[in-house]
TrEMBL record:
Protein name per Swiss-Prot or TrEMBL: phosphoenolpyruvate--glycerone phosphotransferase
A Pfam family annotated for this UniProt entry: Dak2
Function noted in UniProt: ADP-binding subunit of the dihydroxyacetone kinase, which is responsible for the phosphoenolpyruvate (PEP)-dependent phosphorylation of dihydroxyacetone. DhaL-ADP is converted to DhaL-ATP via a phosphoryl group transfer from DhaM and transmits it to dihydroxyacetone binds to DhaK.
Catalytically driven reaction(s): dihydroxyacetone + phosphoenolpyruvate = dihydroxyacetone phosphate + pyruvate
GO terms under biological process: glycerol metabolic process; lactose metabolic process
GO MF annotations, alphabetized: glycerone kinase activity; intramolecular oxidoreductase activity, interconverting aldoses and ketoses; phosphoenolpyruvate-glycerone phosphotransferase activity
Transferase keyword on record: yes
KW Acetylation (keyword) present: no
Native organism taxonomy: Bacteria, Bacillati, Bacillota, Bacilli, Lactobacillales
Keywords: Glycerol metabolism, Isomerase, Kinase, Lactose metabolism, Transferase
């Protein structure tokens, strides 16, 4: 893709904002290590404001797409963070001028404008443990590239952004609350730099059409139609599906189906597994016997969310005798929309479970 249109930019920023909202807890945990812990909330508030203004405003000019996104962040986040992060979008909007669309070179000029605005307002430089430690490498990629393809350049930019995030662990903090920690701020990544990396990763993901998750479905004879309905709904949501059976109402032992789906998850043949039986209990017990697998029975919307966010459960189970299909659809959609984030407090607990499992196998 060589040109970024206003409609594409608008949809891209909405998608990016939605990804930031999902990362609220993750960003808060990072900020809490050396800051006051409110970065995740601030970014989420700014992202929600972007969604509101872009979804409810008939914007046709590409400069206004970025400018309105920037102003939404500034007005909703408040304080220094609002001013600084709004500059990322305002810089691109300013450079866009009255163009109908943007090339890689023109978008890169906008990023350089954003860097200049941020440095003027915040006085930070590369190596000061701020968002610039990932934004400047991204701007450099756009400036130095010979490619005219947005996807190609963004892929390289995302890598540069995360390398910048990693480098912030080696820097002493010079701004915000963290500057008072001195050497205690070492070995901790900067939340602002992480947010920048998430932003450009989301842009890349959106423009390449999103990452299609492959979901495997399995059921015993008590839940064939239930499984088929959930499988069809997953296809409607845009997921790639694999059916592991069962296909008739003749008796079948559910452990065999559970083991097959669980082994497919473990081998990464599929990304997630959905297992259905009468109650969902037997399938969960069986799947959890496969080393490395975490299967969770879903009965309510909160559990559907936390199965991934807190427990990194690769498999969800349902009970055709005890759940309505409409409720199960909602739980399936919520579960598949969530992704476990490394670095959160939950990761330590998951690692304890995995270590215990490994010790048993010795």
């Amino acid at each position: 893709m060589e040109r970024l249109t206003s409609e594409k930019a608008k949809a891209m920023l909405i998608f990016t904002a939605e990804e930031l909202i999902k990362k609220e807890e993750y960003l808060g945990d990072i900020d809490r290590a050396i800051g006051d812990g409110d970065h995740g909330i601030g970014m989420s508030n700014g992202a929600k404001a972007i969604c509101d203004v872009l979804q409810n405003d008939s914007i046709t000019d590409i400069d206004q797409v970025f400018k309105k996104a920037g102003m939404a962040m500034m007005e909703s986040m408040g304080g220094a963070s609002g001013v600084i992060f709004s500059s990322l979008f305002l810089g691109v909007g300013k450079a866009a001028g009255k163009k109908e669309d943007l090339s890689v070179e023109e978008f890169g000029a906008g990023l350089r404008e954003a860097v200049a605005m941020i440095q003027k307002r915040g006085k930070a430089q590369l190596g000061d443990k701020t968002m610039l430690d990932s934004l400047i490498p991204v701007a450099d990629v756009f400036q130095k590239t010979q490619s005219v393809d947005f996807l190609e350049v963004l892929e390289e930019a995302v890598q540069a952004a995360y390398e910048g995030v990693e480098k912030t662990k080696k820097y002493l903090a010079k701004f915000g609350r963290a500057k008072f920690l001195g050497e205690r701020s070492l070995d901790k990544q900067d939340a602002g730099a992480t947010s920048v990396a998430i932003i450009f990763e989301a842009m890349h993901e959106y423009l390449k059409g999103g990452i299609m998750m492959k979901v495997g479905f399995g059921a015993d004879e008590n839940a064939v139609e239930f499984k088929n309905t959930l499988k069809e709904y997953a296809e409607e949501l845009g997921y790639e599906v694999v059916d592991f059976g069962y296909y008739s109402d003749s008796p079948v032992d559910y452990p065999a189906i559970a083991f097959e789906v669980a082994k497919a998850v473990k081998s990464e043949t599929i990304d997630r597994g959905i297992l259905c039986c009468g109650t969902g209990i037997g399938m969960a017990i069986a799947a959890n016997k496969v080393p490395g697998i975490r299967a969770a029975q879903l009965t309510d919307i909160y559990s559907a969310e936390r199965a991934q966010l807190s427990n990194n459960a690769q498999i969800a189970t349902f009970g055709a005798f005890v759940q309505g299909i409409d409720s199960a659809k909602l739980l399936l959609e919520e579960y598949l929309s969530q992704s476990f984030e490394a670095g959160t407090r939950s990761e330590r607990k998951i690692n304890q479970i995995m270590d215990y499992e490994k010790n048993l196998a010795k």
